[in-house]
Design brief:
about 400 residues; alpha/beta; five-stranded parallel beta sheet; four-stranded parallel beta sheet; binds FE3-S4 cluster
Protein backbone atom coordinates (compact mmCIF):
# COMPACT_ATOMS: atom_id res chain seq x y z
CA UNK A 1 0.00 0.00 0.00
CA UNK A 2 1.29 3.42 -0.91
CA UNK A 3 1.90 5.73 2.06
CA UNK A 4 2.28 9.49 1.74
CA UNK A 5 5.32 11.22 3.20
CA UNK A 6 3.27 12.29 6.20
CA UNK A 7 2.03 8.72 6.75
CA UNK A 8 5.61 7.40 6.44
CA UNK A 9 6.60 9.89 9.13
CA UNK A 10 3.93 8.53 11.47
CA UNK A 11 5.12 4.98 10.74
CA UNK A 12 8.63 6.09 11.72
CA UNK A 13 7.34 7.30 15.09
CA UNK A 14 7.08 11.02 14.32
CA UNK A 15 3.75 11.34 16.12
CA UNK A 16 4.50 9.03 19.06
CA UNK A 17 3.81 5.48 20.13
CA UNK A 18 0.03 5.16 19.68
CA UNK A 19 0.07 6.73 16.21
CA UNK A 20 3.03 4.58 15.16
CA UNK A 21 1.34 1.37 16.37
CA UNK A 22 -1.83 2.42 14.60
CA UNK A 23 -0.06 3.10 11.33
CA UNK A 24 1.60 -0.33 11.58
CA UNK A 25 -1.82 -1.94 11.97
CA UNK A 26 -3.38 -0.02 9.08
CA UNK A 27 -0.39 -0.60 6.77
CA UNK A 28 -0.42 -4.35 7.52
CA UNK A 29 -4.18 -4.54 6.88
CA UNK A 30 -3.82 -2.56 3.67
CA UNK A 31 -1.08 -4.90 2.44
CA UNK A 32 -3.07 -8.05 3.34
CA UNK A 33 -6.22 -6.85 1.57
CA UNK A 34 -4.53 -5.20 -1.40
CA UNK A 35 -5.48 -1.59 -0.60
CA UNK A 36 -3.68 1.03 -2.69
CA UNK A 37 -3.98 3.84 -0.17
CA UNK A 38 -5.46 5.11 3.06
CA UNK A 39 -8.66 7.14 2.85
CA UNK A 40 -10.05 9.61 5.41
CA UNK A 41 -12.94 8.48 7.60
CA UNK A 42 -15.64 10.72 9.07
CA UNK A 43 -16.21 8.68 12.26
CA UNK A 44 -14.99 5.62 14.10
CA UNK A 45 -16.76 3.11 16.35
CA UNK A 46 -14.51 1.02 18.56
CA UNK A 47 -15.56 -2.43 19.80
CA UNK A 48 -13.86 -4.45 22.53
CA UNK A 49 -15.04 -2.16 25.33
CA UNK A 50 -16.40 -4.65 27.84
CA UNK A 51 -13.87 -5.65 30.47
CA UNK A 52 -15.59 -9.05 30.29
CA UNK A 53 -14.07 -9.51 26.81
CA UNK A 54 -10.88 -7.45 27.23
CA UNK A 55 -9.55 -8.79 30.53
CA UNK A 56 -6.38 -7.34 32.04
CA UNK A 57 -4.34 -7.88 28.87
CA UNK A 58 -6.76 -5.67 26.91
CA UNK A 59 -6.81 -3.05 29.65
CA UNK A 60 -2.97 -2.92 29.67
CA UNK A 61 -2.94 -2.53 25.87
CA UNK A 62 -5.38 0.39 26.06
CA UNK A 63 -3.57 2.03 28.98
CA UNK A 64 -0.32 2.01 27.02
CA UNK A 65 -2.01 3.59 23.97
CA UNK A 66 -3.66 6.18 26.21
CA UNK A 67 -0.23 7.51 27.29
CA UNK A 68 0.17 9.52 24.08
CA UNK A 69 -2.72 8.54 21.78
CA UNK A 70 -5.38 11.10 20.79
CA UNK A 71 -8.07 10.43 18.20
CA UNK A 72 -8.23 12.71 15.15
CA UNK A 73 -11.86 12.08 14.13
CA UNK A 74 -15.09 11.63 16.12
CA UNK A 75 -14.70 8.24 17.78
CA UNK A 76 -17.23 6.51 20.01
CA UNK A 77 -17.66 3.16 21.73
CA UNK A 78 -19.60 -0.06 21.42
CA UNK A 79 -21.48 -1.21 24.58
CA UNK A 80 -19.46 -1.79 27.75
CA UNK A 81 -19.94 -4.57 30.29
CA UNK A 82 -22.26 -2.53 32.52
CA UNK A 83 -24.39 0.59 32.88
CA UNK A 84 -21.61 3.03 33.74
CA UNK A 85 -23.81 4.73 36.35
CA UNK A 86 -26.43 2.21 37.50
CA UNK A 87 -24.18 -0.87 37.45
CA UNK A 88 -25.09 -1.95 40.97
CA UNK A 89 -28.76 -2.28 39.99
CA UNK A 90 -27.72 -4.75 37.28
CA UNK A 91 -25.95 -6.96 39.80
CA UNK A 92 -22.42 -6.11 38.60
CA UNK A 93 -19.63 -6.69 41.12
CA UNK A 94 -17.47 -3.87 42.55
CA UNK A 95 -14.37 -5.50 41.15
CA UNK A 96 -15.76 -5.71 37.62
CA UNK A 97 -17.05 -2.12 37.82
CA UNK A 98 -13.63 -0.83 38.87
CA UNK A 99 -11.92 -2.47 35.90
CA UNK A 100 -14.66 -1.44 33.47
CA UNK A 101 -14.31 2.17 34.60
CA UNK A 102 -10.55 1.98 34.01
CA UNK A 103 -11.22 0.82 30.45
CA UNK A 104 -13.63 3.68 29.78
CA UNK A 105 -11.28 6.21 31.44
CA UNK A 106 -8.47 5.05 29.15
CA UNK A 107 -10.70 5.71 26.12
CA UNK A 108 -11.75 9.09 27.54
CA UNK A 109 -8.13 10.19 27.89
CA UNK A 110 -7.64 9.37 24.18
CA UNK A 111 -10.39 11.89 23.36
CA UNK A 112 -12.94 9.16 22.58
CA UNK A 113 -16.62 9.94 23.14
CA UNK A 114 -17.50 7.43 25.86
CA UNK A 115 -21.13 6.99 24.83
CA UNK A 116 -21.29 3.21 24.54
CA UNK A 117 -23.78 2.04 21.94
CA UNK A 118 -24.28 -0.19 18.93
CA UNK A 119 -26.94 2.18 17.53
CA UNK A 120 -25.00 5.43 17.07
CA UNK A 121 -27.41 6.34 14.27
CA UNK A 122 -30.17 6.70 16.90
CA UNK A 123 -28.25 9.37 18.82
CA UNK A 124 -27.24 11.68 16.00
CA UNK A 125 -24.09 9.95 14.74
CA UNK A 126 -25.41 9.47 11.22
CA UNK A 127 -22.99 9.38 8.29
CA UNK A 128 -24.23 10.57 4.92
CA UNK A 129 -24.71 8.34 1.90
CA UNK A 130 -21.31 7.50 0.42
CA UNK A 131 -19.30 8.65 3.47
CA UNK A 132 -16.39 6.47 4.54
CA UNK A 133 -16.32 5.50 8.22
CA UNK A 134 -14.59 2.79 10.29
CA UNK A 135 -17.15 1.09 12.51
CA UNK A 136 -16.70 -2.16 14.35
CA UNK A 137 -19.91 -3.61 15.79
CA UNK A 138 -21.51 -5.91 13.25
CA UNK A 139 -25.13 -4.69 13.48
CA UNK A 140 -24.02 -1.06 13.30
CA UNK A 141 -21.82 -1.89 10.31
CA UNK A 142 -24.71 -3.66 8.56
CA UNK A 143 -27.07 -0.72 9.21
CA UNK A 144 -24.46 1.82 8.09
CA UNK A 145 -23.68 0.03 4.82
CA UNK A 146 -27.16 -1.18 3.97
CA UNK A 147 -29.72 1.34 5.26
CA UNK A 148 -27.63 4.52 5.21
CA UNK A 149 -25.40 3.65 2.24
CA UNK A 150 -22.25 4.91 3.98
CA UNK A 151 -19.20 2.67 3.62
CA UNK A 152 -17.34 0.66 6.22
CA UNK A 153 -15.68 -2.69 6.62
CA UNK A 154 -16.36 -4.57 9.84
CA UNK A 155 -13.39 -3.37 11.83
CA UNK A 156 -11.86 -5.20 14.75
CA UNK A 157 -11.34 -3.24 17.99
CA UNK A 158 -7.62 -2.50 17.36
CA UNK A 159 -8.06 -1.57 13.68
CA UNK A 160 -10.98 0.75 14.50
CA UNK A 161 -9.00 2.48 17.23
CA UNK A 162 -6.05 2.76 14.82
CA UNK A 163 -8.39 4.46 12.31
CA UNK A 164 -9.41 6.87 15.10
CA UNK A 165 -5.78 7.80 15.87
CA UNK A 166 -4.86 8.26 12.20
CA UNK A 167 -8.25 9.49 10.90
CA UNK A 168 -7.94 7.09 7.97
CA UNK A 169 -8.54 3.48 6.96
CA UNK A 170 -7.19 1.30 4.13
CA UNK A 171 -9.24 1.57 0.93
CA UNK A 172 -10.47 -2.00 0.36
CA UNK A 173 -13.53 -4.21 0.76
CA UNK A 174 -16.83 -2.39 1.25
CA UNK A 175 -15.22 1.03 0.75
CA UNK A 176 -15.14 0.21 -2.98
CA UNK A 177 -18.44 0.38 -4.83
CA UNK A 178 -17.97 -2.76 -6.95
CA UNK A 179 -17.38 -4.85 -3.80
CA UNK A 180 -20.84 -3.85 -2.57
CA UNK A 181 -22.59 -5.64 -5.44
CA UNK A 182 -24.96 -8.46 -4.45
CA UNK A 183 -24.12 -12.01 -5.51
CA UNK A 184 -27.23 -13.80 -4.21
CA UNK A 185 -30.85 -13.02 -5.07
CA UNK A 186 -33.16 -13.84 -2.15
CA UNK A 187 -36.87 -14.10 -2.92
CA UNK A 188 -38.91 -13.70 0.25
CA UNK A 189 -42.27 -15.41 -0.15
CA UNK A 190 -43.65 -15.09 3.34
CA UNK A 191 -45.37 -12.30 5.21
CA UNK A 192 -43.38 -10.51 7.89
CA UNK A 193 -45.41 -8.86 10.62
CA UNK A 194 -43.44 -8.63 13.82
CA UNK A 195 -40.01 -7.33 14.78
CA UNK A 196 -38.95 -10.89 15.61
CA UNK A 197 -39.99 -12.06 12.10
CA UNK A 198 -37.21 -9.86 10.75
CA UNK A 199 -34.72 -11.46 13.15
CA UNK A 200 -35.83 -14.92 12.02
CA UNK A 201 -35.57 -13.81 8.39
CA UNK A 202 -32.01 -12.67 9.09
CA UNK A 203 -31.19 -16.16 10.36
CA UNK A 204 -32.89 -17.81 7.36
CA UNK A 205 -30.99 -15.66 4.86
CA UNK A 206 -27.70 -15.53 6.76
CA UNK A 207 -27.17 -19.29 6.86
CA UNK A 208 -27.86 -19.50 3.12
CA UNK A 209 -25.91 -16.41 2.03
CA UNK A 210 -22.81 -17.46 3.96
CA UNK A 211 -20.20 -15.04 2.66
CA UNK A 212 -22.36 -13.56 -0.09
CA UNK A 213 -24.15 -10.22 -0.31
CA UNK A 214 -27.92 -10.69 -0.67
CA UNK A 215 -30.25 -8.69 -2.88
CA UNK A 216 -33.60 -9.29 -1.19
CA UNK A 217 -36.84 -9.13 -3.10
CA UNK A 218 -40.23 -9.27 -1.51
CA UNK A 219 -40.45 -8.16 2.11
CA UNK A 220 -41.32 -4.56 1.24
CA UNK A 221 -40.87 -1.56 3.52
CA UNK A 222 -40.06 -1.99 7.19
CA UNK A 223 -39.63 0.40 10.13
CA UNK A 224 -36.02 1.33 10.91
CA UNK A 225 -36.23 -0.63 14.19
CA UNK A 226 -37.01 -3.80 12.23
CA UNK A 227 -34.10 -3.19 9.86
CA UNK A 228 -31.67 -2.72 12.74
CA UNK A 229 -32.73 -6.10 14.13
CA UNK A 230 -32.64 -7.74 10.71
CA UNK A 231 -29.11 -6.44 10.01
CA UNK A 232 -27.88 -7.72 13.38
CA UNK A 233 -29.29 -11.15 12.59
CA UNK A 234 -28.21 -11.56 8.97
CA UNK A 235 -24.62 -10.66 9.73
CA UNK A 236 -24.54 -12.85 12.84
CA UNK A 237 -25.69 -15.90 10.93
CA UNK A 238 -23.67 -15.55 7.80
CA UNK A 239 -23.62 -12.88 5.18
CA UNK A 240 -21.22 -9.99 4.74
CA UNK A 241 -22.17 -6.85 6.73
CA UNK A 242 -24.24 -5.39 3.91
CA UNK A 243 -27.55 -6.32 2.30
CA UNK A 244 -29.81 -4.72 -0.27
CA UNK A 245 -33.62 -4.81 -0.21
CA UNK A 246 -35.45 -3.79 -3.36
CA UNK A 247 -37.46 -0.63 -2.83
CA UNK A 248 -36.01 -0.12 0.66
CA UNK A 249 -32.23 0.31 0.78
CA UNK A 250 -30.49 3.02 -1.24
CA UNK A 251 -28.10 0.95 -3.37
CA UNK A 252 -30.48 -1.91 -4.20
CA UNK A 253 -31.01 -0.70 -7.77
CA UNK A 254 -27.36 0.06 -8.52
CA UNK A 255 -26.22 -3.41 -9.58
CA UNK A 256 -27.09 -6.25 -11.94
CA UNK A 257 -29.38 -8.96 -10.61
CA UNK A 258 -27.34 -11.96 -9.34
CA UNK A 259 -27.89 -15.24 -11.23
CA UNK A 260 -27.68 -17.35 -8.06
CA UNK A 261 -30.91 -17.34 -6.04
CA UNK A 262 -32.69 -18.82 -3.00
CA UNK A 263 -36.29 -18.57 -1.81
CA UNK A 264 -37.36 -18.02 1.78
CA UNK A 265 -40.88 -19.22 2.53
CA UNK A 266 -42.77 -20.65 5.49
CA UNK A 267 -40.56 -23.79 5.93
CA UNK A 268 -37.36 -21.72 6.06
CA UNK A 269 -38.93 -19.30 8.57
CA UNK A 270 -40.14 -22.21 10.71
CA UNK A 271 -36.64 -23.69 10.73
CA UNK A 272 -35.27 -20.31 11.87
CA UNK A 273 -37.84 -19.99 14.66
CA UNK A 274 -37.19 -23.59 15.75
CA UNK A 275 -33.49 -22.82 16.04
CA UNK A 276 -34.14 -19.66 18.07
CA UNK A 277 -36.82 -21.09 20.41
CA UNK A 278 -36.06 -23.74 23.00
CA UNK A 279 -38.64 -26.31 24.07
CA UNK A 280 -38.23 -25.48 27.77
CA UNK A 281 -40.65 -22.59 28.47
CA UNK A 282 -39.31 -21.34 31.81
CA UNK A 283 -37.85 -17.81 31.67
CA UNK A 284 -35.57 -16.13 34.22
CA UNK A 285 -34.18 -13.31 32.05
CA UNK A 286 -35.89 -11.00 29.57
CA UNK A 287 -33.65 -8.76 27.52
CA UNK A 288 -34.87 -6.19 25.02
CA UNK A 289 -32.75 -3.70 23.10
CA UNK A 290 -30.44 -5.83 20.97
CA UNK A 291 -29.43 -3.81 18.99
CA UNK A 292 -29.88 -0.98 21.48
CA UNK A 293 -33.49 0.12 21.81
CA UNK A 294 -34.95 3.21 20.18
CA UNK A 295 -37.05 5.65 22.18
CA UNK A 296 -40.15 4.25 20.49
CA UNK A 297 -39.29 0.70 21.55
CA UNK A 298 -38.84 1.91 25.14
CA UNK A 299 -42.21 3.67 24.93
CA UNK A 300 -43.84 0.39 23.85
CA UNK A 301 -42.25 -1.47 26.76
CA UNK A 302 -43.36 1.22 29.23
CA UNK A 303 -46.94 1.08 27.97
CA UNK A 304 -47.00 -2.72 28.22
CA UNK A 305 -45.54 -2.71 31.75
CA UNK A 306 -47.59 0.14 33.20
CA UNK A 307 -49.13 -0.88 36.53
CA UNK A 308 -47.76 -4.43 36.31
CA UNK A 309 -44.97 -6.37 38.06
CA UNK A 310 -42.20 -8.51 36.64
CA UNK A 311 -42.43 -12.00 38.19
CA UNK A 312 -40.27 -12.85 41.19
CA UNK A 313 -37.10 -14.55 40.05
CA UNK A 314 -37.16 -12.87 36.62
CA UNK A 315 -34.66 -10.15 35.68
CA UNK A 316 -35.67 -7.85 32.83
CA UNK A 317 -33.42 -5.37 31.01
CA UNK A 318 -34.13 -2.86 28.28
CA UNK A 319 -30.72 -1.91 26.89
CA UNK A 320 -30.12 1.39 25.12
CA UNK A 321 -27.69 4.26 24.55
CA UNK A 322 -27.38 6.70 27.45
CA UNK A 323 -28.84 9.70 25.53
CA UNK A 324 -31.90 7.55 24.74
CA UNK A 325 -32.23 6.58 28.41
CA UNK A 326 -32.05 10.27 29.36
CA UNK A 327 -34.86 11.12 26.93
CA UNK A 328 -36.87 8.14 28.21
CA UNK A 329 -36.36 9.46 31.77
CA UNK A 330 -37.69 12.89 30.77
CA UNK A 331 -40.76 11.28 29.23
CA UNK A 332 -41.44 9.11 32.30
CA UNK A 333 -40.85 5.79 30.50
CA UNK A 334 -37.92 4.79 32.72
CA UNK A 335 -39.97 5.39 35.86
CA UNK A 336 -42.83 3.25 34.55
CA UNK A 337 -40.49 0.45 33.50
CA UNK A 338 -38.52 0.50 36.75
CA UNK A 339 -41.71 0.61 38.88
CA UNK A 340 -42.51 -2.80 37.39
CA UNK A 341 -39.19 -4.21 38.60
CA UNK A 342 -37.57 -4.14 35.13
CA UNK A 343 -34.42 -2.08 34.49
CA UNK A 344 -33.37 0.28 31.74
CA UNK A 345 -29.71 -0.53 31.16
CA UNK A 346 -27.70 2.17 29.39
CA UNK A 347 -24.20 1.61 27.93
CA UNK A 348 -24.36 -2.20 27.97
CA UNK A 349 -26.23 -5.23 26.65
CA UNK A 350 -27.18 -8.86 27.27
CA UNK A 351 -24.16 -10.18 25.36
CA UNK A 352 -21.24 -8.06 26.55
CA UNK A 353 -22.32 -7.84 30.22
CA UNK A 354 -20.94 -10.59 32.50
CA UNK A 355 -24.21 -12.56 32.79
CA UNK A 356 -22.87 -16.02 32.04
CA UNK A 357 -24.02 -18.43 34.74
CA UNK A 358 -26.55 -15.97 36.24
CA UNK A 359 -29.50 -16.96 34.05
CA UNK A 360 -30.71 -20.17 32.47
CA UNK A 361 -33.22 -19.00 29.88
CA UNK A 362 -33.73 -15.67 28.10
CA UNK A 363 -36.67 -14.19 26.20
CA UNK A 364 -35.74 -11.55 23.66
CA UNK A 365 -36.76 -9.87 20.42
CA UNK A 366 -33.30 -10.43 18.98
CA UNK A 367 -32.03 -13.31 16.85
CA UNK A 368 -28.49 -12.08 17.43
CA UNK A 369 -29.18 -12.06 21.16
CA UNK A 370 -30.38 -15.68 20.92
CA UNK A 371 -27.28 -16.76 19.03
CA UNK A 372 -24.82 -15.34 21.57
CA UNK A 373 -26.95 -16.34 24.55
CA UNK A 374 -26.95 -19.94 23.33
CA UNK A 375 -23.28 -20.11 22.40
CA UNK A 376 -21.44 -17.66 24.60
CA UNK A 377 -23.68 -17.56 27.68
CA UNK A 378 -25.04 -21.14 27.52
CA UNK A 379 -28.68 -20.08 27.94
CA UNK A 380 -31.87 -21.42 26.48
CA UNK A 381 -33.55 -18.85 24.26
CA UNK A 382 -36.95 -17.65 23.10
CA UNK A 383 -37.60 -15.01 20.47
CA UNK A 384 -40.81 -13.07 19.93
CA UNK A 385 -42.29 -9.59 19.61
CA UNK A 386 -41.94 -7.02 22.40
CA UNK A 387 -45.41 -7.80 23.77
CA UNK A 388 -44.69 -11.51 24.09
CA UNK A 389 -41.37 -10.86 25.83
CA UNK A 390 -43.10 -8.53 28.31
CA UNK A 391 -45.71 -11.22 29.03
CA UNK A 392 -42.87 -13.70 29.64
CA UNK A 393 -41.40 -11.28 32.19
CA UNK A 394 -44.76 -10.99 33.98
CA UNK A 395 -45.48 -14.74 33.90
CA UNK A 396 -41.92 -16.14 34.16
CA UNK A 397 -42.91 -18.40 31.33
CA UNK A 398 -42.89 -18.37 27.52
CA UNK A 399 -46.40 -18.96 26.21
CA UNK A 400 -46.73 -20.75 22.87
FE1 LIG B 1 -25.74 -4.40 20.27
FE2 LIG B 1 -25.04 -6.01 22.20
FE3 LIG B 1 -26.90 -6.74 20.52
S1 LIG B 1 -23.69 -4.78 20.99
S2 LIG B 1 -26.38 -5.74 18.61
S3 LIG B 1 -27.04 -5.03 21.96
S4 LIG B 1 -25.25 -8.00 21.23
Amino acid sequence: MHLTKEEEGILDGGEGYAAQKSMQILAALGDIFGAEKLIPVKSVQVSGVSYHNLGDAGLDYLSKLAEDGRVKVPTFLNPAGMDLKAWKKLGISEEFAKKQKMVVDAFASMGVNTTCTCTPYLIGIVPEFGDHVAWAESSAVAYCNSVIGARTNREGGPSALAAGFIGKTPDYGLHIKENRAPDLLVKVETELQELSDWGALGRAIGIRAKNKIPLIDGPGPAPADYLKSFGASIVTFGSKPIYHIRGVTPEAGDFEEPSDSVTIGEPEMKEAYDFLNDEDKTIDFVSLGCPHASLDEIRQVAELLEGRRVADGVEMWVACARPIKEKAEELGYVRTIEDSGAKVAADTCMVVAPVKGRFKSVATTSAKGCYYSQGHNKMKTHIGPIGKCVEAAIEGEWKS
